[in-house]
Structures are given as C-alpha cells and as structure tokens.
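pasting Serine/threonine phosphatase stp for the record, 270 residues
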Amino acid sequence: MEIVVGAVSDKGNVKPTNQDNFLVKIYENNNQDIGLFVMCDGMGGLSFGEVASSISVKSFKEWFDKNYERVINEKDENQIINFMVKVIEVVNKKIREYGEKELAKVGTTISALLLCKDKYYIVHVGDSRIYKINKEIKQLTEDHTLVAMNVKNNIMTEDEAKSSARKNILTQCVGVKENIEVFKQYGRINKNDVFILCCDGLYNKFEEKELYDEIKKIKNAIDNDVLQNTAQEFVNRVKERGEKDNISVIIVGFVSDEGFIEKLKKHVGF
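structre below
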C-alpha cells in the first residue's frame, strides 16, 4: 500500500509563537511504504517549548533516517517498540539538559506512529492523541492528564473531564522528570484505516464524532491533496471556533494497488 498524508500546524488565534512541531517521513522499500509520523506539543515560557518539540522531532528523524531498513527487517514487534522508546528516553535526557542550562522548566508531549508492512506501532507521552478511524473512531493513545486519571479511577465522568478547568494539567510529559512511563501499543493495519495525530489545540474544539463524520465523507477519494485540504479545513474550523492554543494535525491514509488499477480502468475505459 502507498501511504498518503496531509499535515498542518498553525500558531492559532492568540499565541505569538507555535510551540507545536510534527514529523512526516515516508520511505519506499521494495514497492512498499514505511512511514513515521510524530506530533509534539511543546511547553515552557518564551521559546522553550518550541525548542523542546523541535529536539523531539529532530531526534526521531535522525533515528528513522539511519534505521528504517533495520526496522523493516525486524520481525519482533516488541523490539521495534523498544527502538522507539529508546528515542523518547534520549529526547527526555536532551530536553532535561537544555532546561537545566536555561534554568527553565521545559517539556513536550510526544505521540509517534510508525507504519510498517501491515502493522502500526505507537509510543506516546502526554496529551496529544492518535486516533484510528475505520467503521468507528478509536483513540489509540491514553491522555496523561489529571482528569483522565480521575476518569479512569471513577472520580470524574468523561463529560466532567471535558469541561474541567484542570483538563490541561499533565501527569507526564517529556523533559521534566528523569524517569517517564511511555505508553506503548502495536496492532494490525486494516483496509481503509485512517490515522489522525493531533494536539489538544485541535481536539479541544473538535468532537470525535465530527472527526469520524468528516473522514467518512472522503473515504472513497483519499489521496495526498484530499488529505492536505482536509487537514487545513480542520485547522480553519477550530480557529473559527475561537481556540486559543496552537493547532496541529496529521491525517494518514492508504492507497492500495488495487484501488489505483480500478481508477486507471475508469480513465482509459477498459
């Protein structure tokens, strides 16, 4: 399958700088794509958050550029996850060293999605999110927030969490503490899956059902241009709704050889 993608990051309506950063990296190997997608939401005064998210994206890019062939040939799913966890651990150390040098508290969320062969791999820290959409929408990551922990422990309902003034308080992020617990998951990619990576600046003003409905509209016409236009429309809509934070989204889909051949047949008339 060919990976197709659309991605947009915007500083939003209020903040003077954009502390979000993302990575979109795709290689082709033996007519099959392998892709790495990373969403980071930096935190810290001045430009510190921007530096933290930039360190994260750069580190993942360097790792992927050097090791994508090794990942393709690796048959142990847990080993691939371990490779990605090691990158986060390296990033955590780099950001902590930067924060100590600047005498500042600096951090970032990291949500990373690797697509290889027929599997997806996720490592994640913070409250950015990865969704998978097919016949339903499913949040694949867990929010590392105080309200999410309260919901999990039946202290708060999901509706109460959404409206809570404390919903942005993180229980974990990269760069603040020496030890972090990384959320890990892998699974099989199914036909017609679409993945969405986004920061809280998007999902704060965009319900899951709305995300699902919008992706459903374009299911039969997915390509790079369609996904790019859809990502831009998502960001525009959130800005119109008055979101104050930076806004970033990556939408990832697939075009199969079978689908390409069917389209070709229609164009040439056989």
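DSSP finds eight helices and eleven strands in the chain.
The chain has a mean pLDDT of 92.
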